[in-house]
Specification:
With 206 residues, the protein is an alpha/beta fold. Helix content is 38%, strand content 17%. The protein has seven helices and six strands; from the N terminus they run βααβαβαααβαββ. α2 runs parallel beside α3, α4 crosses α5 and α6 crosses α7. It is globular and about 50 Å long.
Length: 206
């Protein structure tokens, strides 16, 4: 049994501004830094101890991972496969501006079951899901029987959950994952168990 602790990065500047950001280097806000510290304190006291931390290399994820890694005394491992989906020309836009400037693309994007959808100049949904599935299988394969933290992004973690629980693939977008939330999955040879989803108890004092 492998315990996967899936962490969405703490609040970043684009979250505060209501903008979409794919691969851009947006930093954590001051509140986001406090969230990351609160999460680090909680994970440092995890029993049994956490043995490894994989993170997206994007700035907001890395800044979330750093205090966690310090608290559990491991070196964070950056993994390109854990990046958010590449929004291409939609990066930097709000949902409203996306709808206004690209109405046809926006209409297609709303059909979440359309895995052939591709952001202009960005990534196709099906390729994104395949990328996330590959990296998740790789991480689990490397750390069987261990407790592993994965720090990533909302879209990436939703794709990860859809990969682990394929019966939910039809409504993968419905997973509600807040900034600095913790989702716990036990991965087993005969099936997986969702222990906690979007756990934010550590943020109550921030």
């Amino acid at each position: 049994m492998t315990d996967l602790l899936l962490v969405r990065h703490a609040q970043a500047t684009h979250n505060l501004e209501g903008r979409w950001e794919g691969w851009g280097a947006t930093p954590l806000t001051e509140e986001g830094q406090c969230q990351a510290q609160a999460l680090a304190r909680r994970l440092a006291s995890w029993v049994p101890a956490i043995t490894c931390l994989h993170t997206s290399p994007l700035l907001r994820a890395w800044q979330t991972a750093e205090p966690i890694a310090l608290g559990i005394q491991v070196t964070p491992i950056a993994h390109e496969g854990l990046r958010e989906i590449d929004f291409g020309q939609v990066s930097g836009q709000t949902r409203e501006s996306f709808q206004q400037t690209m109405p046809d693309v926006y209409a297609r994007w709303q059909d979440r079951t359309d895995l052939t959808f591709q952001f202009p100049g960005g990534e196709q949904r099906s390729a994104f899901f395949q990328r996330v599935g590959r990296v998740l299988d790789e991480i689990v394969g490397q750390h069987r029987g261990e407790r592993v933290i994965v720090v990533s992004h909302g879209g990436t973690l939703r794709a990860a959950l859809a990969h682990l629980f394929p019966e939910t693939m039809g409504d993968w977008w419905a997973y509600d994952l807040h900034n600095a939330s913790l989702t716990h999955v036990r991965v087993g040879e005969r099936g997986h168990t969702l222990v906690a989803l979007n756990d934010c108890r550590h943020l109550e004092s921030t």
